């Protein structure tokens, strides 16, 4: 069961990472085009807006993948002094708390996005709907919560201890 969840976890976060990479490439192209247009004539309208929304999606979509690769900062100077069993218990507690936290964060962001959708909010400059970006951030939080849940189950089933 844990192996299946690990595979699903990897596929979901790989897809999100590819989307984040694509959006990052779009951000780079847009930035370069904006610099060029600014030198030649006028800057591209709404670049600042788009950078903010694309950046939020890139960051949210990269969270789960970074956690799988153990790329987040971990301050474990105190924990490293504990015996392996105590570290495993603390890791399980940490994964449980983090999974719960990011489910709550994702749920609240999802509710906010639904409110934006219902009210028809649009961006100030380009007048584009931005609830899809907010839903994307919620999805990134749910993906990270899923990573923590799989790590918790792996830890409880005696799998390798992950931070």
User: Helix and strand string, N-terminal first?
Assistant: HHHH
pLDDT < 50 stretches: none
- State the end-to-end distance: 21 Å
CA radius of gyration is: 19 Å
Q: Estimate the strand proportion.
A: under 5%
Q: Which percent range fits the helix content? A: over 70%
User: Strand tally, please?
Assistant: 0
Structural summary, described in words:
With 163 residues, the protein is mainly α. It has one domain (2-156). Helix content is 75%, strand content 0%. The chain has four helices and no strands. Helix 2 packs parallel to helix 4 (131-156). The radius of gyration is 19 Å and the shape is elongated. The mean pLDDT is 91.
Keywords:
single chain, 163 residues, mainly alpha
Structure at a glance:
The chain is mainly α. It has helices spanning 2-40, 47-68, 84-119, 131-156.
SSE blueprint and pairings:
Layout: H1 2-40, H2 47-68, H3 84-119, H4 131-156
